[in-house]
Write a structure and sequence with these properties.
heterotrimer, A alpha+beta (about 450), B alpha/beta (about 250), C mainly alpha (about 675), B: about 250 residues, alpha/beta, Rossmann fold, six-stranded mixed beta sheet, about 15% strand, C: about 675 residues, mainly alpha, two-stranded antiparallel sheet, globular, binds iron/sulfur cluster
Chain lengths: ~450, ~250, ~675
């Protein structure tokens, strides 16, 4: 498919992978990216200035430094007794520097707008002029719980720009780290939901499981959030045979506890009552607003970026893509639960083939020629995109679209018409992060 | 067959750490192994590339600033060795500057009995990556279980004794942080957690950074790390229950 | 010979009516006269309660029956309540009514005079005349709304329509009484087949004036929808409805012990009114509509108490019957005084912040006059039944009476009583919501405007005076109830075998007891409660008195780290009660109406970019009346087409027919010599 005036660029990933042409660049240098799905062809990222009908089919794109992400669905509501209920930026219910503006006549949320930007540190501006390895230190600290997805996508994009291949073993490390972090995030989301439903025993156990996932990360990468884990030859990375056995043992235990816990939690009527039919996202809305990740899959769209991934060992492994039909918080919970299982399965396959992964360790990226690379990856909350330009071994520009940015309109839509007490159940089920949004 | 909550809890057994009765084990402090301390080489004789490679400029000719260090471990292969343990990551701003890469002597701020040992903690995020937030909130999980020490998270600064600040203060969060501190009843203490909250950490030069936490509210104690391990944060809160300092830390 | 008390009564009536011509000279002169009349009326009423009935003036009426202006313990009680209220409203009006016209003062004086005559007449015909005068004068008062907005005419018309319906039914009841006794005297008891007709006609006729369900439109429409002047609102809500109560009690006092369905009917209507009144008060957004709905609730409670009393009387439980009557009278007194205070306060709020919209009253008079504000809070607390205020005592007594319905011999009456008890308790809870909302948004809210410099002086004293009365009525209730014994006796008349004073149901000393001669049921002691409050707050008072406050630091309200939000970002009173609207949507018929206020730019986006939302509640009875109106209009239209086709020939035929009928009638009626 071509678009007049738009140039097709070689999509991300290392060269030679035969990746499909997913990315386009407009004459003005804006970026467009298509999700090439069997049934739905959805433009997920776009220029900042969206026309009305473009917004109807487009998602959400913040091109580099030039514009804010579209976080609200942009409706205004007035009426007798209607007022704005501000929530945050300092509120334990969000636990981040971010908040919401709720339009309500009391009790019921008429419209809700996330108030983003409180955490804007300006990472993408700051890394300009740094080496790729230095820049990675900043990029991974954009959002701790998603550090490895960001680091991996950023590195893929930079490597693609520099035209440098990545060793298989390094790809394995990235996959392993991302899957571990996915497990942590899903457990964390489930724990927050159980907490919101006052399932205190279940929440405590889920929190304990999340902590064991962090400890597994810490034992494997020397850092509980995986900061610095993808640095070529990173110190503290422990992936020799005995360490892998240790990791396997940890994950087996985590898996069996999670099985029992999941059964009990989803057998709890109180818990189900709170999340069933709460925060529903229709398939149509999910596609129109460019939902990604578990949000999209819970609204019956079988899109998982790991399937499209031409590079990482994913293509040789069984990647279970979980979908649910209902689109409500329960559906997202079910998707996340299945994905914890899926990630455990993936890690098992990965560790199995670990000795056969070749290539040893790779050297840092040092591009001399100017180049541009675009890479995607499936983070815990959805797929993310990095668009990186390098020259002379230095970063020239970085732009990104993160899952949190993409999912805000759906958070807002799903809460429309909900009562206040449903807020936590809907909001937490998306796993949206203000840190990841603001950058 | 669905097991009851109780049955599962019994099957899992006790997870809770012995800390602070026993020192933390390496499992609880994985990143501490990346904190640099005095090595076989003197700081002055470190090759200049090592100092240049440090992303935060934490290594000078005479000291290592634990408050700036983000534990990236770049300097460790150059001859520095991992620093001792969690309690070494704790101190006043000056106490985190290690002359010659060694923890300074002395016992830290003098204990004053204004805050009791049972504390209510309010967390405020002024621009973190969520790493520090999640580590602080993780203190409530069964592994650390700060409730067993008589401490609780509160949902309002109105009920808080201790303000835990995480993240690098952005322009939008300076006033909210000040207001949060104002909203707390006295006596109160402030704990700055993580490199971002101490001196900006990796974001010290970031365009979005507006100030240091210590310039906005008086900080009583700093916990170094990026993010600090939960046990280190716990140690910090415990220390506030034992000691107090009124003004800003020196 | 006119006694001293009689002279006072005559002077009182003269002063009240005299207010009308005096007001034509000067508004303030008119109100001064009504104030004087009220004071005299109170003294005369106290004399009637203390020294027994007296007659001021007697003459022979048009139908040849003796007529008199007199007060007995029953009418004296009502005159006392009304006089107390009018004293306050008249002095309030001096400051409140700033013109420009004088007609409000004239209508006001006429209304007061008519009600005073209504209380003191001994004869049903004069009663009816006073009743009609009162209705018309009140109609005039409503029309004097500030600025006279267009909708006032329709609202006042509704008032008049319901008022005339009431007059017709009252006339019917009086005709029934005359039929049974052959006299218009208010003292002739009636027996015979007509009693049930009289009872129902009186209940509906007077119930219309009390505004009880399903006739509550008559009460709230003029007040809530049209901002009748506040002194008028107070008079309407406190004493016009009191006239209805008086009429009902008068008629019932003449009836023999009736079947138990009388009481059950009263219970049912009363409980439904209480619930509906409370519910609509809780969701009302109008600083005068909310108290108006609360009037419906309170009048419902009076009916409930009367109902229990009637059932207990016919079931041979004189102690319970007397206790319920005490409750009814005390409720009437407490409500009249408290509600007047609340309406006067609402008027003050209106003068201070120029709105009666609770979502915008924010802070009300707080900045201008904390005393008036505090008085308003106290009055609302009394209506919310906070101990030891007057409303608490009456609410307690009514619930005590209701929960003794297990003493009734018939199971269905026990059940009705207990159900009514549950409904009344639910209503009490809803009133609490309503009053908290009223107080929160009209009195306690952080003021968003500077004090209004143009707020008239002299509004504070009447409000505060009435509120002091509310508190005193509550705290001194055991003694006040004892003083009401003659009123209960006057109502019970010869029926009570034992002198009421010796019954266990009678309050004695420091406390109020409920129960029967065979057993004690409940007890409260408002003075002791006050004492307990006082002692309980001593440590705190001492703490502050000794100045041990520690370092005081004032910080803004916590708002999630934001600066204090602008008024547009604070909770509205509407929001406060939306929970109820959604929870009780079955009762309230809540529905959300959305209208696009700017259409979407693109057809692909189905939702508009901006819309208006309205959460509407529906009163089923209002829809019923609307349907009724439509039906009548439709029938009228049909009739008009059928018999008035606009053809001259047809009209000539009508005239011819009429002349024929008249001739035939005259010929038949006056046969030639
Ligand atoms: S930040 Fe810390 S670990 Fe990294 S190089 Fe500097 S001193 Fe060493
Ligand atoms: S100190 Fe490190 S972990 Fe903590 S907020 Fe800053 S970047 Fe994140």
């Amino acid at each position: 498919m071509s678009r007049p005036g738009w140039t097709e660029v070689a999509a991300g990933r290392p060269p030679g992978s035969g990746a499909r042409s997913l990315a386009y660049v407009s004459p003005e240098g804006d970026l467009a990216l298509w999700n090439d799905h069997e049934e739905h062809r959805t433009l997920l990222v776009r220029r900042p200035e969206l026309s009305a009908e473009e917004r109807a089919v487009l998602g959400n794109w913040r091109a580099g430094r030039s514009g804010p992400a579209v976080v609200s669905v942009g409706e205004q509501v007035h009426g007798y007794g209607v007022f704005t209920f501000p929530y945050g930026p300092v509120a334990m219910g969000v636990a981040e520097a971010g908040g919401f503006e709720v339009r309500t006549y009391g009790e019921r949320i008429l419209e809700i707008e996330p108030s983003v930007g409180h955490k804007r540190r300006g990472i993408e501006e700051q890394v300009v002029g740094k080496t790729v390895e230095d820049a990675a230190l900043w990029i991974e600290r954009r959002a701790g719980p998603f550090a490895l997805s960001h680091a991996a996508a950023f590195r893929f994009a930079a490597e693609s720009a520099a035209g440098r291949p990545v060793a298989e073993r390094e790809l394995g490390v990235r996959a392993l780290g991302q899957e571990l972090q996915r497990i942590y995030n899903h457990l964390h989301v489930l724990a927050r939901l159980a907490e919101a439903a006052s399932q205190n025993v279940g929440a405590a156990q889920l929190n304990a499981l999340a902590e064991s996932a962090l400890r597994a990360l810490g034992a494997t990468f020397g850092h509980r959030w995986g900061f610095g884990a993808l640095v070529p030859g990173a110190p503290g990375r422990r992936l020799d045979a005995p360490d892998r056995t240790d990791l396997e043992a940890r994950l087996r235990r985590l898996g069996s506890e999670f099985e029992a816990l999941g059964e009990t939690l989803l057998g709890s009527r109180t818990f189900l009552d709170r999340i069933q039919s709460t925060g529903t996202v229709s398939t149509e809305d999910a596609l129109r607003w460019g939902a990604v990740g578990p949000t999209l899959r819970a609204s019956s769209v079988a899109w998982d970026d790991r399937l499209r991934d031409p590079t990482i060992p994913y293509r040789e492994m069984f990647v279970p893509v979980v979908t649910e039909r209902a689109g409500d918080a329960l559906a997202r919970v079910l998707v996340r639960r299945e994905e914890v299982r899926g990630s455990l399965l993936l890690i098992e396959q990965l560790l199995d083939r670990w000795p056969r992964l070749g290539g040893g360790e790779a050297a840092p990226v040092e591009a001399i020629e100017p180049g541009r690379g675009i890479a995607r990856g499936e983070g815990p909350s959805g797929d993310l995109v990095y668009d990186v330009r390098v020259s002379e071994g230095r970063i020239r520009s970085v732009a990104s679209r993160t899952p949190s940015q993409a999912n805000w309109p759906l958070v807002a839509l799903s809460l429309r018409g909900a009562v206040f007490t449903d807020f936590a159940f809907s909001f937490e089920s998306f796993g949206a992060s203000f840190a990841e949004t603001d950058g | 067959m669905v097991k009851s909550w109780l049955g599962q809890a019994a099957a899992i057994g006790i997870l809770t750490t012995e800390f602070p009765r026993r020192p933390a084990d390496p499992e609880e402090l994985p990143a501490a192994a990346r904190a640099p301390g005095a090595g076989p080489v003197a700081l002055a004789s470190l090759p200049p590339e090592v100092r240049a490679a440090c992303p935060t400029g934490a290594i000078s000719l005479t000291e290592i600033d634990q408050g700036k260090c983000v534990r990236c471990a770049r300097c460790l292969p150059a001859g520095l060795v991992p620093a001792p343990d969690a309690s070494a990551n704790l101190g006043s701003r000056a106490g985190l500057r290690w002359p010659d890469g060694r923890p300074p002597g002395g016992t830290g701020p003098a204990p004053l009995a204004e805050l009791g040992p049972s504390l209510h903690v309010f967390l405020v995020d002024v621009g973190s990556c969520q790493g520090c937030n999640l580590e602080v909130m993780g203190l409530a999980n069964p592994y650390y279980d700060l409730h067993r020490l008589g401490m609780f998270f509160t949902n309002s600064p109105r009920h808080a004794d201790v303000l835990v600040v995480v993240g690098v203060p952005t322009a939008a969060m300076v006033e909210p942080l000040r207001r949060t501190f104002e909203a707390m009843p006295a006596p109160k203490a402030v704990l700055a957690v993580g490199a971002c909250a101490i001196d900006g950490g990796i974001f010290a030069e970031a365009p979005g950074r507006a100030a240091a936490v210590g310039e906005i509210v008086p900080v009583d104690l700093y916990v170094a790390g990026c993010p600090p391990a939960p046990v280190a944060i716990l140690e910090g809160i415990l220390a506030l229950g034992r000691r107090r300092s009124r003004g800003p830390a020196p | 010979m006119i006694g001293g008390a009689g002279l006072l009564l005559l002077l009182a009536i003269a002063a009240l009516f005299g207010g009308a011509p005096l007001a034509l000279v000067d508004r303030r002169l008119g109100y001064a006269a009504t104030f004087l009349g009220s004071v005299l009326l109170v003294i005369a009423a106290l004399a009637a309660l203390d020294a027994g009935p007296f007659t001021a003036l007697s003459w022979t009426g048009v139908v040849g029956e003796p007529e008199a202006l007199h007060l007995d313990a029953l009418s004296g009680f009502f005159a006392l309540a009304a006089g107390l209220v009018w004293g306050a409203t008249s002095s309030y009006s001096l400051a409140y009514d700033t013109g420009p016209g004088r007609s409000l003062a004239v209508a006001y004086a006429l209304t007061l005079g008519a009600i005073a005559v209504l209380f003191s007449t001994s004869d049903w015909l004069l009663f009816l005349a006073a009743w009609e005068t009162m209705t018309l004068a009140a109609y005039w008062m409503i029309l004097e709304a500030v600025g006279r907005p267009l909708r006032i005419f329709s609202a006042a018309f509704v008032f008049l329509a319901f008022g005339e319906a009431s007059t017709i039914l009252v006339a019917l009841a009086i005709a029934g009484l005359y039929d049974g006794t052959g006299s218009f005297a208010m003292t002739s008891p009636i027996a015979g087949p007509m009693v049930s007709v009289v009872f129902v006609a009186a209940l509906v006729g007077f119930g219309l004036k009390m505004g009880v369900a399903p006739f509550h439109m008559s009460e709230w429409l003029p007040i809530a929808h049209s901002s009748a002047p506040s002194n008028a609102s107070a008079v309407l809500s406190s004493t016009l409805t009191l006239a209805g109560v008086y009429g009902l009690f008068r008629v019932v006092a003449l009836l023999p012990d009736g079947p138990s369905w009388w009481g059950a009917l009263l219970l049912t209507i009363g409980a439904i009114s209480a619930l509906l009144g409370a519910l609509f008060a809780a969701v009302s957004e109008h600083a005068k509509g909310l108290p108006a709905y609360s009037t419906i609730e309170n009048n419902g409670l009076i009916l409930v108490a009367l109902g229990i009393s009637l059932i207990a009387r016919s079931d041979g439980l004189p102690a319970l019957a007397a206790f319920a009557l005490f409750a009814a009278f005390f409720q009437a007194l407490a409500h009249a005084v408290t509600k007047a205070a609340l309406f006067l306060f609402a008027g003050d709020v209106e003068r201070s912040v120029h709105t009666l919209d609770l979502s915008r009253t924010r802070g009300g008079t707080k900045a201008a006059d904390p005393v008036a504000s505090g008085a308003g809070v106290l009055a609302a607390l009394s209506l919310a039944a906070a101990p030891p205020l007057a409303g608490f005592v009456s609410e307690w007594m009514i619930l005590e009476a209701l929960f003794q319905s297990f003493r009734f011999p018939q199971a269905w009456l026990q059940f009705t009583g207990l159900l009514a008890g549950a409904v009344v308790a639910l209503a009490a809870g809803l009133v609490l919501v309503a009053m908290v909302k009223f107080v929160g948004f009209a009195a306690l809210y952080r003021p968003v405007r500077p004090p209004n410099a143009e707020r008239p002086r002299g509004l504070r004293a009447p409000i505060a005076g009435l509120t002091v009365l509310v508190a005193a009525l509550g705290v001194l209730s055991p003694w006040i109830l004892t003083a009401l014994a003659p009123t209960v006796s006057a109502f019970e008349g010869a029926r009570t075998a034992a002198p009421v004073g010796s019954l266990l149901a009678i309050p004695s000393g420091w406390s109020i007891l409920s129960g029967s001669p065979s057993g004690f049921f409940g007890i409260i002691s408002p003075p002791a409660l006050l004492l307990a409050f006082a002692i309980g707050s001593l440590p705190a008072l001492a703490y502050f008195a000794l100045g041990r406050r520690g370092a005081e630091r004032r910080v803004p309200a916590w708002s999630g780290g934001r600066a204090a939000p602008p008024p547009s970002e604070t909770y509205t009173s509407f929001g406060y009660s939306t929970g109820l609207r959604l929870m009780l949507s079955g009762f309230l018929g809540t529905r959300e109406v959305r209208r696009a206020s700017s259409p979407g730019v693109s057809a692909e986006i189905a939702t508009p970019l901006s819309y208006d939302v309205d959460l509407e509640v529906l009163d089923v009875f209002k829809s019923f009346y609307d349907a009724l109106v439509r039906l009548v209009l439709w029938a009228a239209e049909g009739t008009k087409r059928a018999i008035m086709p606009g053809r001259i020939g047809r009209y000539l035929t009508y005239i011819l027919l009429t002349v024929l009928v008249v001739i035939v009638y005259v010929a038949a009626a006056f046969p030639g010599p």
